[in-house]
Structures are given as C-alpha cells and as structure tokens.
User: Fold this.
Amino acid sequence: MYPKSLVAAALLLSMSAPAVAQEYVEYVSKDDRFTITFPAQPKVTQSTFMSQYGYALPSRVYSADSGKSRFVVTVVDYNGVQALGEARAKACPPGAEPCFGNPSPVSSTGAGYWKAEISGATTYATYLFLQRDAKLTFLGWATMDLVEGTIVSLTNNADKSRTSAGIYMHENKLYLFEATVPAGYPPPDFFQQSVGWIDENGNPIRYLAVYHNGFSKPPVSRRGGAAQ
Assistant:
C-alpha cells in the first residue's frame, strides 16, 4: 500500500529521540511467509486461536517490546479447518444445522461451517479488536503489496495508549499485525505498514492485482523484476 522508503521514514519520525538510535530488525518468517520491521528481535511462541465457530486453530505469535511499546504479529493457520469441520459434522445430532452446516460443493458454509470460517476470518478478527475496551478512531480497507485487508486504529480507554493494527488473509492464513504505544506517542502505523510477503523460497513478492483469499491468485512480480 505504501512505498517501503516512506514507511522507513515514518518509522524514524514516529520514534522518540532515544529510540532512534536503536537498531531495527527486518524480520523474515519463512514459516509464515511474511516480512516486517520489529524494533527488536521478536520472541516466537506457539499458541492456539479460537475461531468464530469454536475451532482451536494452530497459531504462532511473534512479539517484541521497545520501552513501553509492544509489537505483536499473530498468524493463524486455517488450512486444517476443512478437516475439522467435516469431522464435527459427522458427530452432529440429527437436525442440528448450526453444527452440521451444509456439505454441498456449492454451499457457502461447508460441513461444520469450514467455508464460512475461512471467508469470514478477517471480519471476525476485526470484531475481536472492536470488543476491546477502546475507542475506535479509524477502520478501513487497505492492501499491502496488493493483499487486501483491514486496518484498525484504537485509543485504549484504560491508559489512552494507541493501537494500530492490520488484518490480512493470505494463503488461508490469518495475519494480525498490531502495535501499541503509550499515550502521547504518534500512532504506530509504521509497524503494520512495513509488512511484506515472500514465496516458498523466501523471495519477496508483490501481486499485480488485488489478492482476494479464496479466489484465483493474480500474477506476482519479484520486486524490481518481471511478472511471473
């Protein structure tokens, strides 16, 4: 969505003077195929994420602190939700549609609502952000290297700290990028604006048209290279 040079400039301008001297980490996750600028080497932990229809999905959490600021990336893998939905549907009592879903190939829900889980993942994630004890200051559509998503800005009621978040779905993985800074700091938009995507070989990619998860993938270009 934003040129990386502008993101880098915004990052420096948004930091207080003592923080500018620190070295930032251009972090690359080959496991989850993204890149982002952290203020320090993040800690990576395995976790689970409870989905809209109650599936415990595997996730990874990347987190780092800088003073009183916190930076977190959560990646939730939805690729196994079809098998979970089909297994649930087989165990549903007769007539329990909210459990069973619709296994028809042309259904929008799928057995156990697995299709609805994938299609609605970013909407549900946005809902979770809006349940926080915070004032919503911005909500909008965005793209990062043409992967579509949602951006959310919050002012947290308890301490007036500010949170900037980006929510994306790519290759059936849900990405939650969020940064929170103390009251009085500039919004930490630079964090979710520094996101990039990589292919299975670790090469940076940018789509040539908007990527919608679940639809045919548009062609990609290597940054500075030809279309593929």
